[in-house]
């Protein structure tokens, strides 16, 4: 337990000084032990929760214009007047839900001081709601108060992010986002598509993201990967894994660089991973990795792109593919994925890549992974997706269900 204040704090230090039991977790401010009256006229203790958003090291005040609002959540029974009638002036919605792991609320309140549009800081916001609610408890128990003086300010645990994920907090999807918090995920191959996969994974709460690639980051890579490399960064001739580690370490703490290819001598380094993205351009390497992951029971997604130049029109046509395999369903791989370097349909057979197709290939792959994790709803258990740029269209393959005669 710590009484260390956080500055700038948008009124937090005032709450501490006033004796409120406050805690910061997952971009939310929790106010514990607020006395209230239940419908059967008992005095109980509830918890008030509101957004506590940070931006650039500062706390955003709840002014109802910059992402925070004048509303709060409540964990407990609905507060009533001293006579047991509900406090209707607080009412907004009644939905029990988990705001983020470890924090479940029962109600949402909406109330503002008369003649105002919002609150200047969190002290004003918390005390307004607390005074309304606990005033009724004091009718029955005159000494009831949320200002217990018991400090419960909690330091945030070490996050995978260098700065807080305020996007998920503002959207109220912290619990859903937590489903993506796998321990170890690998991206094998950081070319055009693999680098965009990394870009998206770095914005998720995966604990460790391992990058495998033995290539150097060259000038042509700059035109088919996220962001904008400087001329100096290109001239440095870094390994791709080191270059991207330098870029994304500014956001995500859990990046691990492996500046070499996977082969028969080291493919066992994938042991113990929760998920693997395979973004390679060699059929033999893909087959080796497939074989190992299937034997280990590790789910994975393989991506592929096939763009060709039609010389008569000097236009490009082709497709990008996303294929998922799990220990339960993988018999479609041979049909969907080329694993022979001599195959006519081998990935990148004309070595044509374009950043937008690379990015789309990666986005489809990450979205399919998020469905696998339960982040997105999946009405169809799609094994294979193929986007054709010349149509444009997205074809999907779902597993067939055998019926009993």
TrEMBL record:
User: This protein's superkingdom?
Assistant: Bacteria
Q: Which SUPFAM superfamilies is this protein grouped with?
A: Activating enzymes of the ubiquitin-like proteins
Q: THIF-type NAD/FAD binding fold domain location, by residue?
A: 178-315
Question: Pfam families from the entry?
Answer: DUF6791, ThiF
Among the GO molecular function terms of this UniProt record, one is: ubiquitin-like modifier activating enzyme activity
What region holds the DUF6791 domain?
Answer: 11-166
What protein does this entry describe?
Thiamine biosynthesis protein ThiF
The organism's lineage is: Bacteria, Pseudomonadati, Pseudomonadota, Betaproteobacteria, Burkholderiales
């Amino acid at each position: 337990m710590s009484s260390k204040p956080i500055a700038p704090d948008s009124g937090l230090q005032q709450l501490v000084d006033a004796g409120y039991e406050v805690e910061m977790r997952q971009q939310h401010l929790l106010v514990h032990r607020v006395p209230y009256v239940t419908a059967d006229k008992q005095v109980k203790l509830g918890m008030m929760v509101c957004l506590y958003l940070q931006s650039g090291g500062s706390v955003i005040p709840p002014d109802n214009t910059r992402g925070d609002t004048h509303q709060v959540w409540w964990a407990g029974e609905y507060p009533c007047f001293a006579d047991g009638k509900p406090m209707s002036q607080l009412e907004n919605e009644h939905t029990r839900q988990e705001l983020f792991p470890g924090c479940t609320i029962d109600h949402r309140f909406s109330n503002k001081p008369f003649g105002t549009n919002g609150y200047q800081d969190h002290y004003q916001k918390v005390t307004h709601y607390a005074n309304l609610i606990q005033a009724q408890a004091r009718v029955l128990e005159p000494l009831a108060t949320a200002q217990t003086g018991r400090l419960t300010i909690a330091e945030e645990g070490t996050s995978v992010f260098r700065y807080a994920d305020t996007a998920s907090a503002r959207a109220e999807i912290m619990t859903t986002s937590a489903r993506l918090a796998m321990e170890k995920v690998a991206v094998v191959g950081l070319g055009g598509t693999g680098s965009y996969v990394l870009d998206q994974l770095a914005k998720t709460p995966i604990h460790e993201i391992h990058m495998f690639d033995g290539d150097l980051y060259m000038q042509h890579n700059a035109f088919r990967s996220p962001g904008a490399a400087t001329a100096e960064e290109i001239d440095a001739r870094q390994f791709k894994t080191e270059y991207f580690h330098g870029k994304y370490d500014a956001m995500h703490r859990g990046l691990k660089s492996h500046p070499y290819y996977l082969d028969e001598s080291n493919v066992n380094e994938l042991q113990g991973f929760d998920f693997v993205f395979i973004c390679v351009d060699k059929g033999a390497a893909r087959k080796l990795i497939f074989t190992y992951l299937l034997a280990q029971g590790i789910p994975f997604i393989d991506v592929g792109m096939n763009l060709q130049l039609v010389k008569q029109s000097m236009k490009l046509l082709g497709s990008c593919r996303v294929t998922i395999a799990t220990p339960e369903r993988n018999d479609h791989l041979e049909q969907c994925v080329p694993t022979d370097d001599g195959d006519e349909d081998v990935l990148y057979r004309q070595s044509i890549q374009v950043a937008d197709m690379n990015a789309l290939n990666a986005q489809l792959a990450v979205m399919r992974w998020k469905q696998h994790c339960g982040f997105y709803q999946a009405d169809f258990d799609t094994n294979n997706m193929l986007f054709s740029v010349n149509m444009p269209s997205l074809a999907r393959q779902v597993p067939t269900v055998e019926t009993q005669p």
